[in-house]
Amino acid sequence: MPGLLLGDEAPNFEADTTHGRIRFHDFLGDSWGILFSHPRDFTPVCTTELGRAAKLAPEFGKRNVKMIALSIDDVSDHLAWSKDINAYNGDEPTEKLPFPIIADAKRELSIQLGMLDPDERDKKGMPLTARVVFVFGPDKKLKLSILYPATTGRNFDEILRVVDSLQLTAKNKVATPVDWKRGDRVMVIPNVPDDEAKKLFPEGVFTKELPSGKKYLRYTPQP
Q1: Dmax over Cα atoms in the chain, in whole Å?
Q2: Which of 3, 41, 81, 222 could form a cystine bridge with 73, CB 3.0-4.6 A?
Q3: Does the keyword Oxidoreductase apply (predicted)?
Q4: Which of 122, 154, 186 marks a domain boundary?
């Protein structure tokens, strides 16, 4: 099945959405982008996910990230479903969400992007889309891919966290350790010599002593 690998450029597809027809590269512009797929409209887990995505949309906006969803129903269903999503959030049940939803009723885009879940099917026996998250950089290339089965809802706080990491590490010669959160200390990447690290990170580089004697655990405050 076709799909995207890290470093691949996003296909410049055209699609109908709840915000009108788009061409994907034009939609992204110079921003980061998140494309996340959903098995079907009017389903319980998807509704909670889109509700949370809508609540976090201002935070993604602060990070220059454009969000776009995909589901295998048509625009009219998406618009009606949007009312339920807003009502779930306790907001006015309008058809407007802070991001568009792509209509992929024929599953053409889902197939192109490798989003179908072979184990989850509709009443007609057609495969549903899995819960895929693609994060694209301003260069339109895939920076992160997460794949969940239809039965497991995503954690959008985690998606926001990994965006923080991706953006930080794209600009600085650092990596983020386990459970890192914005503002925590980071790690100097192994290919940066100690002399260079001292110049790059004037707030200091702190090395963890290990039984091996190897000095590869080097920490520094977040740049």
Answers
A1: 63
A2: 41
A3: yes
A4: 154
